[in-house]
Amino acid sequence: MDAFCSSSSCSSSFLTKQALPSCSSINFAAGVRTVSVLHLSMPSLKPRAFPNSIRKHSLIGLPRASVAVEQQTQKSKLALIKIGTRGSPLALAQAYETREKLMASHTELAEEGAIQIVIIKTTGDKILSQPLADIGGKGLFTKEIDEALINGDVDIAVHSMKDVPTYLPEKTILPCNLPREDVRDAFISLTASSLADLPAGSTVGTASLRRKSQILHRFPTLNVQENFRGNVQTRLKKLNEKVVEATLLALAGLKRLDMTENVTSILSLDEMLPAVAQGAIGIACRTNDDKMANYIASLNHEETRLAVACERSFLLTLDGSCRTPIAGYASKDEDGNCIFKGLVASPDGTRVLETSRKGPYAFQDMIDMGKDAGQELLSRAGPVFYDLQSVFVYGGCLLRDANKRKLTVEKIATPNPASGRLFLFMVNLQLHGSCGAAIFSSVRH
């Protein structure tokens, strides 16, 4: 297992306070009075991060997708560009960042009403009662936006790159990544200064299997609430209501929302490797729309684009989705080389495989690095590792032994050094749920 390098930029640091007072509170939006653990009344969220025009808007229904158009001004019918985005505060912040950059780069777009924001509700926004891994499928937060793009309801689509499937939909291209934000994860708690400071049995809320597996690998005595979903404000509200003792959020999102005052500490890359493309924004358009392609390509940040391409090559090789705990990060060192770090894990954190690569910071070299790193982890993990862990996660199926203890992948199948085949512990197993046949199918060798 390759060791990861550490640097001062990766070190854990505190943004706000190291000692937490008994009446610590969480701000749900910049400039809003806090809601404390003393159960003061909830404030109304004020979208101060957005232009004033967002506060007064009308919604117009459009066909073929759950689309609502926010009219920026009375001249919105003359809009030269319609930007498709989700409606969460963070997604809107990213859409407005895109709009501001377009306005600054093209004088014709700086006119009032030239750019219109189109809010689109995605599958991931509609289904909040289940963990993302249980919903299944790819593009949970992008599919409907891409459909609106293909159908001509919007001209460009703004995505969080970590949500974008490894294969883009037909008839779309993604020629632009904006400059990447901080890729690290933030630890937020009212009672502890870090994950290590949480007492055994404490509950950490996260909807991310990547975060869950890395938390449990380092702190197996902690509990993880998987269905801790919602936008940033919703999760902070749940934390304030003591649904959990702590949560992890992407620092990039908190910075874009101007909400870093809520951060207790920042996890280093050695403590928590980020999701592939975390902190990166991608802008897509239709394949045959040269005008839009030229508009958004002018905003592209090449260093970010290459890093994201390297990480997504790694993800593609592993055929990763929201059901698989995968992490990857490519960066440029002081000598101008690409340093890539990758990780794959079992959902319960009992097995974590890591690797790293170093090479030229050039497109094809970085694509090859990501692919090679993914192939290494595939080889080291073995096919049953992936088959069984997907069975564990998919549909919430439980596999238990005769004493009704939940089994891990390692307890079900271990390598037989004599033959190289798998010795399967299938005696006295009790299968619960509808995936028993899938388990036998995947492990019958």
UniProtKB/TrEMBL annotation:
Pathway: Porphyrin-containing compound metabolism; protoporphyrin-IX biosynthesis; coproporphyrinogen-III from 5-aminolevulinate: step 2/4; Porphyrin-containing compound metabolism; chlorophyll biosynthesis. It comes from the Eukaryota. Its EC number is 2.5.1.61. GO terms for molecular function: hydroxymethylbilane synthase activity. Residues 81-293 form the Porphobilinogen deaminase N-terminal domain. Coiled coil: none annotated. One of its GO terms (biological process) is protoporphyrinogen IX biosynthetic process. SUPFAM superfamilies: Periplasmic binding protein-like II, Porphobilinogen deaminase (hydroxymethylbilane synthase), C-terminal domain. Its cofactor is dipyrromethane. Residues 306-378 form the Porphobilinogen deaminase C-terminal domain. Keywords: Chlorophyll biosynthesis, Chloroplast, Plastid, Porphyrin biosynthesis, Transferase. CDD domains: PBP2_PBGD_1. Pfam families: Porphobil_deam, Porphobil_deamC. GO terms for cellular component: chloroplast. Belongs to the HMBS family. Tetrapolymerization of the monopyrrole PBG into the hydroxymethylbilane pre-uroporphyrinogen in several discrete steps. This is Porphobilinogen deaminase, chloroplastic. It comes from Malus domestica (Apple). The lineage of its organism: Eukaryota, Viridiplantae, Streptophyta, Embryophyta, Tracheophyta.
